[in-house]
Write a structure and sequence with these properties.
about 250 residues; alpha+beta; Ribosomal Protein S5, domain 2; four-stranded antiparallel β-sheet; 6 helices; 9 strands; about 35% helix; globular; disordered N terminus
Length: about 250
């Protein structure tokens, strides 16, 4: 922990339990069924949902009922301080990209009844425009908004009879920075954190995934509990913002 004589301060002056400014700009991609530009401070991600009127080949071959949902994630070359090479130019996605897009897919499928999406695949594309920490958590949070908008449109068009979503889902980062547990780390905090955690939770307060690790350090049960409490507070706030963004988008 910090020394008692030292005044703790975050780089951007936020309180330890304060999210960055969160913004949702919907209908950002006109050709997608649902889309949003989600901003966690200076981290900005476009999330778009599209429907394919067929299921993957493995589902057809195995005669699996229902539909499918999957995600793709990428960081645009200019999203970071140093240009990031496109995956296509390397011939394959890097391990981090594969890990994150699988996490996005798992997170949404955790609150989605695939049997109610018969014969369809819901694609979620998350493209990072600007990275300042927390791109995976912003992607999950925005992906739910884009997907829910898409589903609501399908319901309105009578292409679905029931909403496959059983709950909402959002994600946020927490970590130990200068000895203090904090919420929603930006890049300078993430780079210097001794403990890094990403939490994915439902709107009803259940955990989907908890990713936590010490960065060449250990952490106590007390610190872990503090990170979970911060994450739950942040996700409750994100959920309220998601609901408002979806409602506003459907009025447009």
């Amino acid at each position: 922990m910090t020394d008692n004589n030292t005044t703790f301060a975050r780089p951007d002056g936020r309180a330890i339990d304060q999210l960055r400014e969160i913004r949702f700009e919907t209908a950002i991609a006109p050709h997608a069924l649902g889309s949003v530009l989600v901003s966690f401070g200076d981290t900005r991600v476009i999330c778009a949902a599209s429907i394919d009127e067929r299921v993957p080949g493995w589902m057809r071959a195995q005669k699996v009922e229902g539909g499918w949902m999957t995600a793709e994630y990428s960081m645009l070359p200019y999203s970071t301080l140093d240009r990031k090479q496109r995956d296509i130019s390397r011939g394959k996605a890097d391990g981090r990209t594969i890990e994150i897009q699988r996490l996005i897919g798992r997170s949404l499928r955790a609150v989605f009844d695939l049997k109610k999406l018969t014969g369809k695949t819901l694609w979620i594309d998350c493209d990072v425009l600007q990275a300042d920490g927390g791109t995976r958590t912003a992607s999950i949070t925005g992906a739910y908004v884009a997907a829910q908008i898409a589903i609501q449109k399908l319901l309105a068009e009578k292409k679905l009879t029931e909403n496959p979503f059983t709950d909402s889902v959002a994600a946020v980062s927490t970590g130990v920075y200068l000895g203090v547990p904090v919420l929603d780390l930006n890049y300078p905090e993430d780079k210097a954190a001794t403990v890094d955690a990403n939490l994915v939770m439902t709107g009803s307060g259940k955990y989907v995934e908890v990713q936590s690790s010490g960065e060449e350090a250990t952490f106590s049960r007390e610190e872990m509990d503090a990170l979970l409490d911060l994450g739950a507070k942040g996700i409750a706030e994100l959920n309220a913002l998601q609901i408002a963004a979806i409602a506003e988008a459907l009025l447009q």
